[in-house]
Design goal:
By secondary structure, this protein is of the alpha/beta class. Helices cover 40% and strands 14% of the residues. A 4-stranded parallel beta sheet has the order 1-6-5-2. The protein has a two-stranded antiparallel ribbon with strand order 3-4. Bound molecules: zinc ion (2 copies).
Length: 247
């Protein structure tokens, strides 16, 4: 059985199992607590999306050019970036569940949001790669939240899921208060890419939250050095200096 067929079957089984789990243990909406919904329609409709014209590197609202003032003149290793919504309200609560409560159910729902973004873009890519955690962090948490998004997304899009393309060799200390150059220094050498997988490939990189973009930039630059053709960066949420509650 080829990889895509295997993923499809896996997804069908996965959905079947989850329907049963949802029936035995009904999910609750992280926004309002209503039972029986992963994220209810009312909370979904209130989600602050990144709509309108956006900078293709950082998602900032722009008029005219598709690159904002602060991204202009900077080198970027990825072609473009998109996030589904701002890291606040129900989306933030959902990411918390994904990240700290081992909630696989919510990951399925959130992967559907990412699918919407990809399908409405003109991005073409060969493989899907999650931003990895270091082995130490992975051991502490037990799972990687970016993989929890990337794997069902790969199944939805029928693309190969390749978490083995990228390894994290160091965790990144807090980026708060650092300027762009210091942030990039802080994340340099944080990842190692596998040229056997990355070479000649266009890659969709997936993470949960975009804060400064430095993590995505560092991962993308390693993949490029390993011979990747093009990198597209996708996250579920983006922090905003206008929106409180971000880490
Ligand atoms: Zn709700
Ligand atoms: Zn920008």
């Amino acid at each position: 059985m080829n990889e895509i067929k295997r993923q499809k079957l896996n997804n069908t089984l996965h959905n079947g199992v989850w329907r049963l789990v949802d029936w035995v243990f009904p999910p609750t909406c992280p926004g309002c607590g209503i039972e029986g919904e992963l994220i209810c329609e009312t909370c979904e409709s209130k989600m602050p999306r990144l709509l309108g014209k956006r900078c293709k590197f950082c998602g900032l609202s722009v008029t005219g050019a598709n690159i904002c003032g602060s991204c202009r003149g900077e080198d970027h290793s990825f072609e473009a970036f998109q996030a589904y919504g701002f890291y606040t309200g129900v989306l933030r609560d959902a990411v918390m569940r994904l990240k700290y409560q081992n909630d696989i159910g919510i990951a399925r729902k959130l992967a559907e949001y990412l699918e919407i973004l990809v399908l409405s873009s003109n991005w073409t890519f060969d493989i899907i790669v999650p931003i990895p955690l270091s082995s130490q962090k992975l051991e502490e948490r037990g799972y990687n939240q970016a993989s929890r998004l990337a794997k069902p997304l790969a199944a939805l899009l029928e693309k190969p899921y390749r978490p083995d393309a990228l390894t994290r060799i160091k965790e990144i200390s807090s980026q708060v208060g650092l300027d762009r150059r210091s942030r990039l220094e802080n994340v340099s050498n944080a990842f190692r890419a596998n040229p056997k997988i990355a070479k000649e490939k266009s890659i969709l990189l997936v993470d949960d939250v975009f804060t400064t973009g430095a993590t995505l930039e560092s991962a993308a630059s390693e993949l490029k050095m390993a011979g990747a053709k093009k990198i597209y960066a996708l996250t579920l949420a983006k922090t905003s200096r206008f929106v409180k509650n971000f880490e």
